[in-house]
């Protein structure tokens, strides 16, 4: 068995067997032809959905740029799409993240911010925690004057089970530094991202 067949102390065979157990629990026969390859596919999907555990989010922001010709205004990246899974039901959370920061001499490549979002999203999550983790990562790496992170998420554990409410999205935010202390900075950020404004 190769290394890639064992992750975090679990053999692939065990992981596939766990999927068969859930199929049986649901009322299915895992030996039925249409389901024969399902455990393998599910385990492979998990490898992708939870790839964030293999990633060091801080490392994405290790390379910063200081030559910004004195640029000292807010930098905002909005509508970063993400797919995550809630840690309570292992059900998908689909949404968008908006990130803003007020640099203190150092900026980072914008694709790197999207990478940070992905690193935290591709784990079992609680939306509040993910919001704080993204903000904390940017704060650690760039020591900016302020950071704002707003996350919108539709939770399938709420739309497909339980209360069955569709079209509901949860919005969470973490504001640090000037985004927390200065109402004008915060307002400027919220205006840029238009959360709660007209649907695009
Ligand atoms: Zn849930």
Please tag this protein with its features.
7 strands; 8 helices; 2 domains; 200 residues; 5-stranded mixed beta sheet; alpha+beta; binds zinc ion; GTP Cyclohydrolase I, Chain A, domain 1
Q: What is the share of helical residues?
A: 25-40%
Number of H/I helices = 8
Q: What is the residue-mean pLDDT, rounded to a whole number?
A: 93
CATH C-level class of the largest domain is Alpha Beta
Low-confidence stretches: none
CATH superfamily of the largest domain: GTP cyclohydrolase I, C-terminal domain/NADPH-dependent 7-cyano-7-deazaguanine reductase, N-terminal domain
- Just name the CATH architecture of the largest domain: 2-Layer Sandwich
Structural class determined from secondary elements = alpha+beta
Order of helices and strands: EEHHHEEHEHEHEHH
Strand order of the largest sheet: 5-3-4-6-7
What characterizes the major β-sheet? 5 strands, mixed
Shape from CA axes?
Answer: elongated
Radius of gyration: 20 Å
* Total strand segments: 7
CATH topology of the largest domain: GTP Cyclohydrolase I, domain 2
Give the strand content. 15-25%
Bound molecules: zinc ion
Beginning-to-end CA distance, first to last residue: 50 Å
Count of separate structural domains: 2
């Amino acid at each position: 068995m190769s290394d890639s067949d064992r992750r975090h102390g679990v053999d692939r065979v065990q992981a596939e067997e766990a999927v068969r157990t859930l199929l049986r629990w649901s009322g299915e026969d895992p030996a039925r032809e249409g389901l024969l390859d399902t455990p393998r596919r599910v385990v492979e999907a998990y490898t992708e959905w939870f790839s964030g555990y293999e990633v060091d989010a801080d490392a994405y922001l290790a390379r910063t740029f200081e030559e910004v010709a004195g640029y000292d205004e807010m930098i905002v990246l909005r509508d970063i799409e993400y797919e995550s899974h809630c840690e309570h039901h292992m059900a998908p959370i689909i949404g968008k993240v908006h990130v803003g920061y007020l640099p203190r001499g150092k900026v980072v490549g914008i694709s790197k911010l999207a990478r940070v979002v992905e690193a935290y999203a591709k784990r079992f999550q609680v939306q509040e925690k993910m919001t704080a983790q993204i903000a904390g990562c940017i704060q650690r790496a760039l020591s900016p004057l302020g950071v704002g992170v707003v996350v919108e998420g539709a939770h399938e554990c709420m739309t497909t089970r339980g209360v069955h409410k569709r079209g509901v999205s949860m919005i969470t935010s973490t504001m640090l530094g000037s985004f927390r202390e200065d109402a004008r900075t915060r307002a400027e950020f919220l205006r840029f991202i238009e959360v709660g404004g007209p649907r695009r």
